[in-house]
């Protein structure tokens, strides 16, 4: 796209200002942003409640301005967020170019600077009231940051929803600021009363964002990588609470298994489900029979031949730890062998060659299968 | 170097294909040379955050095509040095934050152009500074590497660190054993490797892990048959390679997959002929450049990896590529002292 195709400089600036204002006005809302085809009016941003439509020319024009504004105003000394021109510019930059590392890092610097500012102001132990006000101000800034991220990561913007830069930024915000909020008094009380409080208030919104992004951009490597990292960092932070971890794992497995059933070809979804099973097999025992039933239904009733599903099968049924018990590893092998026995035929169903090659792979690379494996215990990383 | 895509498009219609597909060397050279002249295009600014990577891709492609002089050496070196920060790290372009990815590209460019003397002239102690920047990004507990001060970890950064440090003979600045241990932990049951322990197997990440182990001299840790099986399943009926199960073919995987297979001595587990035909179909024979698949817009990223893939499978007329570095073998041989 030539710069000549962008709007006139006057209009470029106007579009930039309009978008900035839009973000400011709706900083509490998750905006659903879409890029509209050229045919529509190039001068007006379409808005319907929280849905925003803007043409590529407008967004591109705003980006060019935003880039100039950012590099002119971003400096090592961070002004307060209320009047931070460079910070406003980063929103427009990232909307169009989600891999812009420097803009993303600037947002981190601003948050860090705010945290520092609040610490310095409220170090006096007598200033409990000010300290809570400080915490509230930081909590607001973090909430707004997560809202902004949701506007980009769950929008109908194809490239943006898979951005490794933004998914890591999200992880950094969560690890640096969000998790500690759950160790404070109000959340602590609710957590003691309800082991699923963490799932409802922290995890569910995150996994909803992940599955959303996974729908916008199939096989979303970085969204699902974030899904794994979230489990890891919260295991560390809340390591004294097995009932909360169990609730998280069970609810997560339910949500993701359901999602995989709807998005069968999504290898990333299946591989995350596998990760859950690999690391929390013990926690998932209440949910496993249902998962096994659904997966076996896919394999043998629906006869699904997707490589994504069979990749899951190899990873789950290959290793020894799924022997003895709920995953019914031994009987799975028996069923698979039965279903694929005999010579290759000409008009056999499509899934048969896939199943046959997976069995061959399992025979070669899977852990040995013994019919009597009652001594084997499912291995898992997080024993109670 | 811009990463502007187009104007060319990969692949003629099937019925217009010449009987013998040829690599359009001159057109690709002209295409790469033209990239920096396109400052009037939006995408020039949109890809500013990758500029130094783009320069490495373009330069490497030109070297493999046998046209190392096609980009003016002084201009390239001047640009590279303008991206350097005081701490020894490099940003994607002047004014951009330093990061491992751009630092590695800088080292690869400096190595290819044999420009470390110029670096030392302009920045005394420059090479050591770069080494320190990279070494400081290692997590000494796990052996993994962060991309920058903000802490994102990914095997891409670990690979980049070992690549750059080995070229500068500064590998002893980091704990290679720990790094190797971390890579080994990223191996999955299906044979592939991911961005971190337990992460989904992905051809790109496979390349970084296998490359890292190869550079560290520890490819003995790889289960070659298991990995080879996973990699060979990347080849699709159309001859192209994908990155993961159920994904579409993409020319860049001609590099990530093929080089990984080469490093574990199993390149013959895919059909080189069918891969070659696929890559050649992805080029724009008239305007130059290679696209991810026939019909799509070309760009310099897919151009270098398509050409590197062709070199690996022995396409005539190309310089030999080093599978562990994605640089000309002649360059890595010189830099590493005759491997």
Give a short summary of the structure.
The complex is a heterodimer of chains A (384) and B (339). Helix content of chain A is 64%, strand content 3%.
* Largest interface (C-beta under 8 Å): A-B, 50 and 38 residues
The total strand number of chain B stands at 4
Bulk shape of chain B? globular
- Give the low-confidence spans of chain B: 13-17
The residue-averaged pLDDT of chain B reads 94
Q: How far is the N terminus from the C terminus of chain A?
A: 58 Å
Radius of gyration of chain A (CA) equals: 25 Å
Globally, the shape of chain A reads flat
Please provide the count of β strands of chain A.
3
Structural class of chain A: mainly alpha
Count of helical regions of chain B = 15
Structure notes:
The complex is a heterodimer of chains A (384) and B (339). Chain A is mainly alpha-helical and 384 residues long. Among the domains of chain A are: 1-124 and 131-152, no CATH class; 301-384, no CATH class. Chain A contains 15 helices and three strands. In chain A, strand 2 (46-48) and strand 3 form a beta hairpin. The longest helix of chain A has 26 residues, at 128-153. Chain B is mainly α. Chain B has a domain at 223-338. Chain B has a two-stranded antiparallel ribbon with strand order 1-2. In chain B, strands 3-4 form a two-stranded antiparallel sheet. The longest helix of chain B has 14 residues, at 51-64. Chain B is globular. Chains A and B meet through helix 2, helix 4, helix 6, helix 9 and helix 11 of A and helix 2 of B. Chain B: InterPro entries: PGGT1B-like, Prenyltrans, Ptb1, Terpenoid_cyclase/PrenylTrfase. Chain B: It catalyses: geranylgeranyl diphosphate + L-cysteinyl-[protein] = S-geranylgeranyl-L-cysteinyl-[protein] + diphosphate. Chain B: It is an enzyme of class 2 (transferase). Chain B: Catalyzes the transfer of a geranylgeranyl moiety from geranylgeranyl diphosphate to both cysteines of proteins with the C-terminal sequence -XXCC, -XCXC and -CCXX. Chain B: GO terms for molecular function: metal ion binding; Rab geranylgeranyltransferase activity.
């Amino acid at each position: 796209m030539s710069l000549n195709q962008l709007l006139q400089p006057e209009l470029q600036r106007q579009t930039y200002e309009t978008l900035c204002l839009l973000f400011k006005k709706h900083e509490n809302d998750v905006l659903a942003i879409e890029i509209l085809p050229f045919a529509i009016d190039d001068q007006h941003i379409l808005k319907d409640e929280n849905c925003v439509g803007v043409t590529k020319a407008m967004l591109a024009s705003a980006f060019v301005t935003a880039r100039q504004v950012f590099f002119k105003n971003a400096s090592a000394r961070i002004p307060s967020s209320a009047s931070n021109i460079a910070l406003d510019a980063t929103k427009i930059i990232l909307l169009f170019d989600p891999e812009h590392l420097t803009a993303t890092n600037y947002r981190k610097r601003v948050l860090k600077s705010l945290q520092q500012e609040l610490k310095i102001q409220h170090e006096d132990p007598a200033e409990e009231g000010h300290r809570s006000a400080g915490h509230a101000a930081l909590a607001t800034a973090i909430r707004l940051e997560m809202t902004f991220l949701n506007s980009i990561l769950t929008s109908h913007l194809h490239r943006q929803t898979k951005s490794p830069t933004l998914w890591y930024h999200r992880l950094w915000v969560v690890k640096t600021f969000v998790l500690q909020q759950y160790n404070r008094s109000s959340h602590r009380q609710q957590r003691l009363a309800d082991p699923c409080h963490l799932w409802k208030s922290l995890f569910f919104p995150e996994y909803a964002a992940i599955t959303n992004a996974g729908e916008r951009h199939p096989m979303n490597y970085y969204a699902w990588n974030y899904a794994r990292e979230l489990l890891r960092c919260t295991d560390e932070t809340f390591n004294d609470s097995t009932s909360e971890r169990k609730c998280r794992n069970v609810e997560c497995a339910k949500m993701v298994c359901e999602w995989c059933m709807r998005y069968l070809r999504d290898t990333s979804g299946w591989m995350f489900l596998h990760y859950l099973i690999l690391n929390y097999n013990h926690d998932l025992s209440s949910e496993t029979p249902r998962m096994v039933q659904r997966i076996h239904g896919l394999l043998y009733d629906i006869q699904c031949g997707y490589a994504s599903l069979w990749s899951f099968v190899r990873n789950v049924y290959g290793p020894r730890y799924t022997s003895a018990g709920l995953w019914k590893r031994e009987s799975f092998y028996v069923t698979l062998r039965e279903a694929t026995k005999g010579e290759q035929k000409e008009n056999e169903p499509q899934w048969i060659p896939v199943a046959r090659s997976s069995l061959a792979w399992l025979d070669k690379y899977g852990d040995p299968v013994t019919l009597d494996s009652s001594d084997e215990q499912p291995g898992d990383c997080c024993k109670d | 170097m811009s990463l502007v895509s187009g104007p060319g498009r990969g692949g003629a219609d099937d019925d217009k294909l010449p009987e013998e597909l040829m690599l359009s060397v001159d057109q690709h050279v002209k295409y790469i040379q033209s990239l920096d002249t396109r400052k009037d295009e939006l995408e020039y600014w949109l890809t500013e955050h990758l500029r130094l990577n783009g320069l490495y891709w373009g330069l490497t492609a030109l070297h493999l095509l046998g046209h190392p002089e096609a980009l003016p050496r002084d201009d390239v070196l001047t640009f590279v040095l303008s991206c350097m920060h005081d701490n020894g790290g490099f940003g994607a372009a002047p004014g951009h934050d330093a990061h491992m990815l751009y630092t590695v590209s800088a080292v690869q460019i400096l190595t290819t152009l044999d420009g470390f003397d110029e670096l030392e002239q302009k920045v005394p102690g420059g090479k050591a500074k770069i080494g320190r920047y990279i070494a400081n990004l290692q997590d000494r507990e796990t052996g993994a590497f962060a991309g920058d001060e903000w802490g994102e970890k990914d095997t891409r950064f670990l690979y980049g660190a070992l690549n750059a440090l080995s070229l500068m003979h500064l590998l002893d600045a980091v704990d290679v054993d720990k790094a190797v241990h971390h890579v080994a932990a990223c191996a999955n049951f299906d044979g592939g490797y991911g961005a971190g322990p337990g992460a989904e197997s992905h051809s790109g990440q496979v390349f970084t892990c296998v490359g890292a182990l190869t550079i560290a001299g520890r490819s003995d840790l790889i289960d070659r048959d298991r990995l080879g099986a996973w990699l060979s399943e990347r080849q699709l009926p159309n001859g192209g390679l994908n990155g993961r199960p159920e994904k579409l073919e993409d020319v860049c995987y001609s590099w990530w997959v093929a080089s990984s297979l080469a490093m574990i001595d199993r390149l013959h587990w895919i059909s080189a002929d069918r891969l070659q035909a696929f890559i050649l179909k992805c080029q724009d024979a008239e305007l130059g450049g290679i696209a991810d698949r026939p019909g799509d817009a070309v760009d310099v990223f897919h151009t270098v990896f398509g050409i590197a893939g062709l070199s690996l499978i022995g396409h005539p007329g190309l310089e030999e590529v080093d599978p562990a570095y994605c640089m000309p073998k002649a360059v890595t041989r010189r830099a590493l002292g005759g491997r």
